Amino acid sequence: MKIFRLLIMAILSMTLQFVSCTKEVDVNVINDEGPMGLSCWDLNGNGTGESSEDINGDGNFDALDCQSASGGNGTIGLACWDLNGNGIGEPNEDTNNDGMYDALDCQGEQGAQGDPGEPGTDGNANVQRFDIAIPNNFTGPQFSFDIPIDSQELPNYAIFVYLVRIVNGVTGVFSIPGDIAGDDYAHFLYVEETGLAAVTIRNLSDNSPENTLAPGTYNFVRIVAIEYSSGSKSGKESLSAELKAAGVDTADYNVMATYFGLK
């Protein structure tokens, strides 16, 4: 019996020791997430969005305000034709004398022209340019000339015609058929078998022949002759479709010259 009591007392002693070593668990401590961190936009750490912290000015306070401020716009570059850098087109900067200030003035100087009284030629085996001088005493309405291409080869060429006018060093190039300077209209005809050609100028308002032009109003008839694969109609249509697809406006000589490498 005494042994049994001693055993009971030992068990009770061990139980009391176990209870005394056990720490009470605070569930609030386990669920505590700790203090909230600072947002990157919160420059003063007060947790409140302030106007100085809305960096991108969109009315929100978020990660987009944490980006660096964008730099200012750079200075506008100089146009290649603007030789003195003042942003103003001046006569000596219109190097091709077309009255425009653009990339065409950035090309090298054009070589010396031949005698304006003789047909000039420019281009390659497939694209040729001819300038045919108009006499200074021409007052209209019709100027006749020969296309300087062998008549047997002429059916293989598409012919584009322009009137050239030079006033005070400024060159104007007008596509034919079409409106030209003043109240005038010009059209062009040629005989394919012989190469004989004529430009006729008429008054746009009533289609009457224009025969009162001031002498020297026009200086050249400019021809661009482009060879295509055959003398057939389909060959010419294919060429026209090719130029159109390439964005070449055949009525604009400067575009044609740039595309084909003409002067």
Describe this entry's structure for a reader.
With 263 residues, this protein is α+β, with helices and mostly antiparallel strands. Helix content is 17%, strand content 22%. It is built from 4 helices and 9 strands, in the order H-H-E-E-E-E-E-E-E-E-E-H-H. The strands form 2 sheets. A 5-stranded antiparallel β-sheet has the order 1-2-9-4-5, with no helix packed on it. Strands 3-8-7-6 form a 4-stranded antiparallel β-sheet, with no helix packed on it. The chain starts with a helix and ends with a helix. Mean pLDDT is 74; it is low at 18-34 and 108-119.
Brief descriptors of the model:
single chain; 263 residues; alpha+beta; 5-stranded antiparallel β-sheet; 4 helices
Q: Strand share of the residues?
A: 15-25%
* Overall spatial form: elongated
Query: Uncertain runs with pLDDT below 50, 5 residues or more?
Result: 18-34, 108-119
What structural class should be given to the helix and strand makeup?
A: alpha+beta
Distance between the termini: 132 Å
Record field, number of beta strands:
9
Number of helices: 4
Major sheet: arrangement of strands: 1-2-9-4-5
Order of helices and strands: HHEEEEEEEEEHH
